[in-house]
Design a protein that fits this description.
The structure holds 2 protein chains of 2 kinds. By secondary structure, chain A is α/β, with parallel strands linked by helices. Chain A has a single domain, classed as Collagenase (Catalytic Domain) (3-Layer(aba) Sandwich). Chain A has a 5-stranded mixed sheet with strand order 2-1-3-5-4, covered by helices on one side. In chain A, α2 links the parallel β1 and β2. In chain A, α2 packs across α3. The longest helix of chain A has 20 residues. The mean pLDDT of chain A is 92. In chain B, strands 1-4-5-6-7-8-9-10 form an 8-stranded antiparallel β-barrel. In chain B, a hairpin with a 2-residue loop joins β6 and β7. Chain B is 16% helix and 58% strand. The radius of gyration of chain B is 19 Å and the shape is elongated. Chain B has a single domain, classed as Porin (Beta Barrel), CATH 2.40.160.20. By secondary structure, chain B is α+β, with helices and mostly antiparallel strands. Classes of the chains: A alpha/beta, B alpha+beta. At the A-B interface, α1 and α4 of A face β2, β3, β6, β8 and β10 of B.
Chain lengths: 211, 214
């Protein structure tokens, strides 16, 4: 009996060991220029994303949502792709032309595309009035291969979804972060992860659009 | 080719569990008369799996949930019995923030297989210690389990069964069990955790003699 109890006490002592907590400090600001903070609250998860059916935009959007979802350790964010734009929280479209589907180029990144994400505040200025709208644009004027364009739209879709999740500023780290003004990496970096983690544990000042 | 390590670990546990069942089913008649089978059903508390601080401190731990254990005892020399144990538990995995809010992450299952020694401590009290392998089986590969569950984890457990006469007459006993293991997942390691956390689980319930008990 004593031996068994001793085993239990020794085991309990082991349980007092506390591992070190890693650094989760954000590496760039996530509030907008007015200091407002937005992220999707827990009662609005999963966030509903819609991609127009032209080209491979749905696949690009699915990969982008998945890339961001993987950055969270503790269930702070989840997203789902919906088929109806009227039931979406985030709507993604091509700005004009649709790029041909091709394997993405693995060479040095080129700026073959651009993107913009817009959220309009309601009259109170404290909540978004409607769904976020994202446009992905293929740049013209310089000739790029189909692979270079696909690599660019994949990066840009992840970048724009970062804005839709609440990263309202660009990262100053143009080499490492997907949220740089012109992203050169294919996935969110450690800095992107730390910044969006901190965002989703910061009380927001802006409310999501009504459903 | 991607290798699903979690699937392999779970597969190994499943094979071992199947082996245990088959070995009991095809046991020799002499041994069969000495084997006893038991089930235990109870509620299990889990300590914190992860303590972290993102802006504010937070803890991640499974909620209190049901636990089911099946065990088989074989007599050894002296007062000892060899015990083979299979243990299944489930509960929601939750994040507890410092402001008091709670968010569900996913449903979590655990499957453990262990071998141990049991003996009578008093006429109404048995004690048992065991070592084995434990696997976490999240319902979804999300969050801290997005890159797998960390494979099969060694664990040690201790249990006491109290069977006062009124319960013993009905082949029942009250069981208090606890176990310890270390916890770290690949996703946590990627996020900067370098050391496993020691996790303990405590369960209280009822143990039922199914076959061949004293």
């Amino acid at each position: 009996m004593k031996r068994l109890l001793l085993v239990g006490v020794a085991a309990a002592a082991l349980g007092c060991f506390e591992p070190l907590v890693p650094n989760h400090d954000p590496t760039y600001p996530f509030a907008d220029q007015f200091g407002d903070v937005f992220h999707w609250p827990a009662d609005r998860l999963p966030v509903r994303f819609y991609a127009e059916p032209r080209g491979n935009l749905r696949a690009l959007l699915t990969a982008a949502v998945d890339a961001w979802q993987r950055q969270f350790l503790y269930g702070e964010f989840s997203g789902t792709i919906v088929n109806d734009s009227t039931a979406a929280d985030v709507i993604v479209r091509w700005a004009d032309s649709v790029p041909p589907d091709a394997p993405p180029d693995n060479g040095p990144p080129v700026k073959a595309c651009g993107g913009v994400t817009q959220g309009v505040l309601d009259s109170s200025g404290a909540a978004f009035a409607g769904p976020f709208e994202t446009q992905i644009q293929i740049l013209t004027g310089t000739v790029f291969t189909a692979g270079q364009v696909q690599a660019c739209v994949a990066r840009t879709t992840i970048h724009e979804m970062g804005h839709a999740l609440g990263l309202l500023q660009e990262s100053p780290d143009s080499l490492r972060d997907i949220m740089a003004t012109t992203p050169k990496v294919n996935q969110p970096s450690d800095g992107d992860r730390r910044t969006i983690e901190a965002l989703y544990h910061t009380p927001p000042t802006l409310a999501p659009p009504p459903r | 080719m991607a290798v699903d390590r979690r699937g392999r670990s779970v597969g190994s546990l499943a094979v071992a569990a199947a082996g245990l069942v088959v070995s009991l089913a095809v046991r020799p008649p002499v041994l069969a008369s000495q084997v006893s089978l038991h089930a235990a059903l109870g509620a299990r508390y889990n300590s914190t799996l992860v303590h972290d601080s993102i802006v504010m401190p937070l803890d991640v731990r499974p909620a209190i949930g049901p636990a089911l254990a099946l065990s088989s005892d074989l007599p050894l020399a002296g007062p000892w019995q060899l015990e083979l144990l299979a243990d299944l538990g489930t509960s929601p995995l939750e994040r507890h923030d410092a402001d008091g809010s709670t968010a569900r992450i996913t449903r979590l299952w655990t499957l453990g297989l262990a071998v141990g020694l049991r003996r009578q401590l008093h006429p109404w009290l048995d004690g048992r210690f065991a070592i084995g392998a434990l696997s976490y089986l999240p319902a979804q590969s999300v969050g801290l389990f997005s890159n797998g569950s960390g494979g099969v984890i060694p664990y040690g457990s201790l249990a006491f069964d109290a069977a006062p006469a009124p319960l013993a007459r009905h082949h029942l006993a009250l069981e208090l069990a606890g176990d310890l293991h270390k916890f770290l997942t690949p996703a946590l390691r990627s996020a900067g955790f370098t050391e496993s956390r020691v996790v303990y689980r405590i369960s209280a319930g009822v143990r039922i003699d199914l076959m061949g008990s004293k």
